[in-house]
Design brief:
With 334 residues, the protein is of the alpha+beta class. The chain has one domain: 3-Layer(aba) Sandwich (Extracellular Endonuclease, Chain A). Helix content is 22%, strand content 19%. It contains 11 helices and 14 strands. Strands 1, 2, 3, 6, 11, 12, 13 and 14 form an 8-stranded mixed β-sheet that branches. Strand 11 and strand 12 form a beta hairpin. The chain starts with a helix and ends with a helix.
């Protein structure tokens, strides 16, 4: 098992901060080790040849037996009362498409599409947008505004409002709580994470089409007894919304041609304070690592011949902007 895969399976806690995550997830400094090889020695013993056809190998159950069996039970009869789930609560909106995780009251993933034209169009003002509960999700499973009240966490956009300025409706879509996760404010949501979002937007100066999938992760950490456990805070009274330990982004930078090249990039960041001088490439991971950690799959229909590594095609780095200055430009608070 490679170090990168092991890191995803057994990542450090959010409290460990960017340094621990960088050490565990970095692909720039670590070269995956090959899997150990096991050699098996087989000894063949000759036995006298017996006359006649070989004895038949029994099949279990035999096709004939399967055809004859009439099950005495009907497990699928449960569905007459309803399907237990899980239910994805897919939400296709103007500026995003999301899938909701009812257990954590957070999105499982949120996808967006940005282009030079979409970012250049400014027909919205975030001061007219308000945070709202997603009423399409049943009350008992949805995140609520009161859950975030005095929680110590920001309502962190997964698809940022700044990516949806092309219409007020599109921007409003980003303010539903099904597009939010609890995020550390100072030092992350209002700083490094915001610079990371800006990096995604700046990719449109090189690529005519950029698609981004963002979501939370709940990664294990090693306790003092040597065992790995998944531990996270839950906010709300009563406790309702899980606080992710990490967040991921998977980026598809398209060259704009049918069947053309796609530069893929995957990143995992801790939900913790990250110094602005931390290199973005320290958080780069293989796409497969995000898949293993999230239970999701990306680019299964994208041929290897069309793939490129994003950080080999462009310089993956953030540009630090002061939070107050950035929010003044966007016209409101995150």
């Amino acid at each position: 098992m490679s170090k990168v895969t092991l890191a995803i399976i057994a990542a450090g806690s959010a409290a460990a901060g960017a340094a621990a995550t960088a050490a565990l997830f970095s692909t720039r400094k670590e070269t995956p080790k090959p899997l150990p090889t096991t050699t098996t020695t087989t000894t063949t013993v000759s036995t006298p040849t017996r006359a006649g056809p070989p004895a038949p190998v029994p099949a279990y159950p035999s096709p004939a037996a399967v055809a004859r069996i009439t099950p005495p039970v009907d497990p699928n009869g449960l569905f007459q009362y309803g399907f237990p789930g899980p239910v994805a609560d897919l939400r296709p909106a103007a500026s995003l498409t999301s899938s909701f995780d009812r257990r954590t009251r957070n999105p499982a993933w949120v996808a967006e599409h940005i282009t030079p034209q979409s970012l250049a169009t400014n027909n919205a003002d975030r001061k007219h947008s308000v945070f709202v509960e997603d009423v399409s999700i049943p009350t008992m499973f949805r995140a609520k505004l009161k859950d975030y009240f005095r929680s110590g966490y920001d309502r962190g956009h997964q698809v940022p409002a700044a990516d949806a300025k092309w219409s007020q409706e599109a921007m409003d879509d980003t303010f539903a709580l099904s597009n939010m996760c609890p995020q550390v404010g100072d030092g992350f949501n209002r700083d490094y994470w915001a610079h990371f979002e800006d990096f995604c937007r700046r990719l449109t100066t090189t690529y005519p089409s950029v698609r981004v999938v963002t979501g939370p992760l709940y990664l294990p950490k090693k306790d003092v007894d040597g065992k790995w456990r998944v531990t996270y805070e839950v906010i709300g009274q009563p406790p309702n919304v899980a606080v992710p330990t990490h967040f991921f982004k998977v980026i598809f930078a398209e060259d704009g041609t049918v069947g053309g090249k796609v530069a893929l990039g995957a990143f995992v960041l801790p939900n913790a304070v990250i110094a602005n001088n931390k290199p973005l490439q320290d958080f780069e991971v293989p796409v497969e690592a995000v898949e293993r950690a999230s239970g999701l799959q990306f680019a299964t229909k994208l041929d290897e011949a069309r793939r490129k590594r994003l950080c080999q095609e462009v310089h993956c780095s953030i540009i630090v902007k002061e939070y107050k200055e950035r929010q003044k430009m966007l016209g409101g608070k995150k």
